[in-house]
Amino acid sequence: MKFFIDTANLAQIQEAHDLGILDGVTTNPSLMAKEGIKGEAAILQHYKDICEIVGDGDVSAEVLSTDFASIIEEGKKLAAIDSNIVVKVPMIKDGVKAIKWFTDNNIRTNCTLVFSAGQAILAAKAGATYVSPFIGRIDDSSWDGVELIAQIAQIYSIQGFKTEILAASIRNALHIVKCAEAGADVCTCPLDSILGLLKHPLTDIGLAKFLEDAKKM
Ligand code: E4P
């Protein structure tokens, strides 16, 4: 399973990259706004900066348009920033149409705001590189996000779809473990959830004892 970090914060991206386990980055308009990125030039430059940090990793850059022609125009501009840019397109009618166009023109896509298996089938039919089910937001509305990942994984495997399942809207370390179990190809997570995987009290207790005993060596 690949690990992406879900942020537009350069310091956090650098920290995850330095850990040596980072395969890519996802961003969205809310995450970009949180970093104070405003205006087209600043947006394009910020994506460039992210690509420089992650090197070979994929970087999802989201279009802000919702009609076919503007999505295509915007997506082409984003894809021209760097070969690692993946154009993130919302799961709407014009979005599906645009994903098919990008697929036919060798531009990789991440279909975002996916909340059902039906939407995941459409994204795969259009040839999306990644499909992003938002599992945390599903859990927030008392449905089961991890169950959706398992359902999509089963459908894609039966049907032979090549689209990779990118579990998004991760809220904690347990989500990452459960998504790995359910067949996600990628988890995109906040830094805290990635670091949460490190935690176990027996590791801390065991290390403290080893370090104490090491003094007697
Ligand atoms: C996915 O790519 C989105 O950026 C993200 O995972 C949304 O997460 P949220 O529900 O925590 O906003």
TrEMBL record:
<keyword id="KW-0963">Cytoplasm</keyword>
<dbReference type="Pfam" id="PF00923">
    <property type="entry name" value="TAL_FSA"/>
</dbReference>
<dbReference type="InterPro" id="IPR033919">
    <property type="entry name" value="TSA/FSA_arc/bac"/>
</dbReference>
<dbReference type="InterPro" id="IPR018225">
    <property type="entry name" value="Transaldolase_AS"/>
</dbReference>
<dbReference type="InterPro" id="IPR001585">
    <property type="entry name" value="TAL/FSA"/>
</dbReference>
<dbReference type="InterPro" id="IPR004731">
    <property type="entry name" value="Transaldolase_3B/F6P_aldolase"/>
</dbReference>
<protein>
    <submittedName>
        <fullName>Transaldolase</fullName>
    </submittedName>
</protein>
<dbReference type="InterPro" id="IPR013785">
    <property type="entry name" value="Aldolase_TIM"/>
</dbReference>
<dbReference type="GO" id="GO:0005737">
    <property type="term" value="C:cytoplasm"/>
</dbReference>
<dbReference type="GO" id="GO:0042182">
    <property type="term" value="P:ketone catabolic process"/>
</dbReference>
<dbReference type="GO" id="GO:0016832">
    <property type="term" value="F:aldehyde-lyase activity"/>
</dbReference>
<dbReference type="GO" id="GO:0005975">
    <property type="term" value="P:carbohydrate metabolic process"/>
</dbReference>
<keyword id="KW-0704">Schiff base</keyword>
